[in-house]
Amino acid sequence: MSKEELRFNSKTIHGGQEPDKAYGAVMPPIYQTSTYAQSTPGGHKGYEYSRSANPTRTALERAMASIENGEYGLAFASGLSAIDAVVKLLKPGDEVISTNDLYGGSYRLFRQVFEQYGIRFHFMGLQDLDAIEAQINDRTQLIWVETPTNPMMNVVDIKGMASLAKKHNILLAVDNTFATPYLQRPLDLGADIVMHSATKYLGGHSDVVVGALVVKDKGLADKLYFIQNASGAVCGPMDSFLVLRGIKTLHVRMQRHCDNGREIANYLKAHPKIAKVYWPGFKEHPNHEIAKNQMSDFGGMISFVPKSGTYKEAVAIVEKLRVFTLAESLGGVESLAGHPASMTHASIPREEREKSGVVDSLIRLSVGIEDVRDLIADLEQAL
Ligand code: P1T
After folding, report:
1. The domain made up of 250-382 is a member of CATH 3.90.1150.10
2. What is the pLDDT, as a whole number, of residue 2?
3. What is the sign of the dihedral through the CA atoms of 28, 208, 33 and 82?
């Protein structure tokens, strides 16, 4: 049986991997080298300089391609540098349609960096396919989807979006950071590019900053590889090793994130001090049916708003948490709490972020894999 025919929970461990050719090491060695000896100019063994390629990074790139059911993986120095490479496929005058509720750093990169180079971004709710089609014109080159979105947990119909993108010959990229391929595989649903902040669930242990792209098409892979090598924001060998190690337990961790997430979402929903809980597993979530169709479970990310609706109350709650750590980021084994308006989404102007629900009293939880009773007790004392 080829490794690519394995089921997902085996692919996380074996997908794209071979024992090391030198000594049979089961885990790929950390090739901590910038360069490689050549016998004659150009006479090398497949590697010449570690910006262009490094064997530990190759092992990670193959693993990522495997778990996303893609053909080609590219590992970057951060999630944002992976996004940066995708936008560099475009040229001045091109237009992008993106969700109005996305990671603040992605928004900042689009608005404050790429708009200066003449690329235009339209931010809108990505639930109404007719409204999106009305926004498309002959300059539209890319649709940038995050699903579930950060931090409002909106879900976008990837299949629907893919058929719209195909009809108009537009690239569809999906940021799969929140769901991971354990819950949804965008390439299978018709997306052209899947992107990750591997800093999050793929790494899984809050010890690296890494980004990834996976594609199926060779021509697209070549273009992205050219940009990666030309711009140089590559993932280093040590970080490649750590993410590769993280991926091996992705399926086990994700199931616990989902189980704990479900219990905490229900606990918060029933709490008298909470006004609103955002989690796509609720039947009344506006995109629940899409989530149910395209995801195998609902993940461990939850946002909520206390009834008082004040900034002061939200800050008081996050400061009181003891098992949850108040911190940026998500997707690690430990539970984190964040205040998007002042942390992850502070780079989005207030009017913009409030339109999509990122109000001053919103709290975001990345539910970890601890004993859920300790997490609920922590929330109880803080609330
Ligand atoms: O931080 P970096 O690895 O560069 O990835 C950026 C990024 C891209 N996409 C999504 C959906 C993200 O959540 C992030 C990073 N997010 C956080 C740091 C955060 O706390 O939300």
Report:
1. yes
2. 78
3. positive
pLDDT digits (tens, 9 = 90+) for 66-114: 999 999 999 999 999 999 999 999 999 999 999 988 999 999 999 999 9
The response to whether residue 149 sits with its C-beta less than 6 Å from ligand 1 reads no
Q: CB-based burial of residue 382 (10 Å sphere; 0-12 exposed, 13-18 middle, 19+ buried)?
A: middle
Is 103 catalytic? The answer is yes
Atom of ligand 1 nearest to the CA of 328: 20
Annotated active-site residue in 175, 239, 297, 360? 175
For residue 229, the model assigns a pLDDT of 98
| Residues lower than pLDDT 50 in the chain | none
Where, residue-wise, is CATH 3.90.1150.10 in the chain? 250-382
Could you give the CA distance from residue 65 to residue 15 in angstroms, rounded to a whole number?
8
Conformation bin of residue 127: beta by default, left when phi > 0, alpha when psi is -120 to 50? alpha
Domain 7-247 classification at class level: alpha beta
pLDDT of residue 260: 98
Written as six digits, the tokens of 290 are 């899409």
Catalytic residue, chosen from 103, 107, 225, 278, is 103
- 103 within ligand 1 shell (Cβ under 6 A): yes
Q: How many whole angstroms from 117 Cα to the centroid of ligand 1? A: 23
Q: What residue's CA is closest to ligand 1, atom 21? A: 329
Q: Is 78 in the pocket of ligand 1 (CB under 6 A)?
A: yes
The ranges of the chain annotated as CATH 3.40.640.10 are: 7-247
